[in-house]
């Protein structure tokens, strides 16, 4: 690897404020905000909109879409050629 062209790879906390969920991992992303983690160290924190704690697929609150009804409606609207 060439020296000086790669971003720094350091510990970062990703936080989902809506779900109250956070996890510590390593990333190249940077942030001006910091947080004191459970181990007593201070890490940069990045707020995310959706995480596994708030995404409907992982929480079991997903909706089942009626795809058959959509196909029929499309065919009625535009007809089959």
Task: Provide an overview of this structure.
A hairpin with a 4-residue loop joins strand 1 (10-16) and strand 2. The chain has a four-stranded mixed beta sheet with strand order 2-1-4-3, with no helix packed on it. The mean pLDDT is 84. With 81 residues, it is of the alpha+beta class. The protein has helices at residues 56-59, 67-78, and strands spanning 10-16, 21-27, 34-36, 42-47. It starts with 9 loop residues before the first strand and ends with a helix.
- What fraction of the residues are assigned to beta strands by DSSP? 25-35%
The chain-level mean pLDDT equals 84
Class per helix and strand makeup:
alpha+beta
- Number of helical segments with 4 or more residues: 2
How would the global form be characterised? elongated
SSE succession: EEEEHH
Summarize the structure.
It is built from two helices and four strands, in the order ββββαα. By secondary structure, the chain is an alpha+beta fold.
Task: Jot down its keywords.
81 residues, alpha+beta, four-stranded mixed β-sheet, 2 helices, elongated, 4 strands
